[in-house]
From TrEMBL:
Annotated TM spans: none
Reaction(s) catalysed (UniProt annotation): H2 + A = AH2
Cofactor requirement: [3Fe-4S] cluster; [4Fe-4S] cluster
Subunit structure: Heterodimer of a large and a small subunit.
Chain segments annotated as coiled-coil in the UniProt record: none
Protein name in UniProt: hydrogenase (acceptor)
Sorted UniProt keywords: 3Fe-4S, 4Fe-4S, Iron, Iron-sulfur, Metal-binding, Oxidoreductase, Signal
Subcellular location, principal: other
Species of provenance: Leeia speluncae
Amino acid sequence: MIWLQSGGCGGCTLSLLNAEQPNVLLALEDMDIDIVWHPTLSEASLDEVSACLEQLLTGEAPVDILCLEGSVMTGAAGSYHRLPNGQSMASMITQLANLADYVVAVGTCAAYGGITASGDNLTGAVGLMFEGSQLGGALGGAFVSKSGLPVINISGCPTHPDWVLDTFALIAANKLTHQDLDPLGRPRFYADRLVHHGCDKNEFYEFKASAEAPGQMGCLMEFVGCKGTQAHADCNIRPWNGNGSCLTGGYPCINCTSPDFADPGHAFFETPKVAGFPVGLPTDMPKAWFVALSTLSKSATPNRVKANATKDRITVAPSLPESKKK
Ligand code: SF4
Ligand code: SF4
């Protein structure tokens, strides 16, 4: 496996280094995956890396898995990111991708452009096979690697370490098929879930008891911009760092696995509304039903839930049944 970094922050590698049970090196060893080069994990000198890339490009050594972290910067003929020999990183990525059995985009930048492509995108940052949610990108929308699969988009900003390692495990076992990827190329083992699933604020969501600021206990959808009901990921089922998620930390889900998350058109911590109701409702729920149900829920909210929603800890405990009171 060779891992390249281009237009990104390196955060997906930092996240991968948080893999536990086992750690990343043991996990790769168990899968029989050798790291030919990784900018953080390898000790090779520049000369050694150049020689290694040459071996891959000439076919002397196989490219089983090519991972890219960060976007491909195509602006100014790739001159924003050049290798020491003057070649653009964009052309190196393309050459290696055409030789690889599997091409893996690690993180939303590599998959869709991500944060690097947000705003005016002066560097021409794109994903490997997508530009935002549109097929295209550096390799073109019809790209397939030698295994017959398109780019595997482990989106997330950053990605969860398990999403990367579980994908590698499927590849190493020759078990990853087209059916295991969703229409945006994301592995379905995590992308068929919603962040809303398993969120510890679900009781507040049920009663539309809302937080008014980050860090409060209530549901963050109504005022604080949470997109967990639309975000494809299993963050609240598969904890991060062994314990938690953005939501358990009191922050709203910003839908970082989605192609266009970095340009939402509003502040991340704000909920855009029309006639008092959030614009971004759950994708599979009719709006009229949501409005009716949320109005009913609000009128039935227990005082305990209402009181706790705007606090940073439990201030009203659940009441005991009359028979248990002394
Ligand atoms: S996806 Fe996010 S964490 Fe990963 S490289 Fe891009 S900006 Fe950094
Ligand atoms: S905070 Fe977000 S993810 Fe959690 S229950 Fe509310 S809408 Fe769902």
